[in-house]
Amino acid sequence: MKQRVEITVRGLVQGVGYRAFAKRAADALQVTGFAENMPDGSVRIIAEGEREKLEEFIKECKKGPSLAEVESIDKKWYPYKGEFVYFEYF
């Protein structure tokens, strides 16, 4: 079953390649959506795909790239909208 999740990642997650890491993980898992830096230093991710793939993606997001220090991840689940073709970051 396809779903949508909004993820907020907090910690040392800006300036360490986190968004590019998220894109690689999303592409490998066939997850679509986007990642963006937020003014408060967090990274916001909107992702869509099969629920089990999203769960795996969240596990990867908790790890992050080697230079990151992920302190916490908040997630909110929503109905699937199908509005993304691929995963991107800005």
What is the topology?
Layout: E1 2-12, H1 18-29, E2 32-37, E3 43-50, H2 51-63, E4 69-79, E5 87-89
Parallel strand pairs: 2-5
Antiparallel strand pairs: 1-3, 1-4, 2-3
Helix pairs in contact: 1-2
Characterise this structure.
The chain has 90 residues and is α+β, with helices and mostly antiparallel strands. It has helices spanning 18-29, 51-63; strands spanning 2-12, 32-37, 43-50, 69-79, 87-89. It is built from two helices and five strands; from the N terminus they run βαββαββ. A five-stranded mixed β-sheet has the order 4-1-3-2-5, with helices on one face. β2 and β3 (43-50) form a beta hairpin. α1 packs antiparallel against α2. 29% of the residues are buried. The model has no long low-confidence stretch (mean pLDDT 97).
Strand content: 35-45%
How many beta-strand elements? 5
Give the helix proportion (percent range): 25-40%
Unreliable spans are: none
Largest sheet: 5 strands, mixed
Rg, rounded, reads 12 Å
Number of helices: 2
Give the overall silhouette: globular
Mean pLDDT: 97
Strand order of the largest sheet: 4-1-3-2-5
Order of helices and strands: EHEEHEE
**N-to-C CA distance:** 28 Å
Structural class: alpha+beta
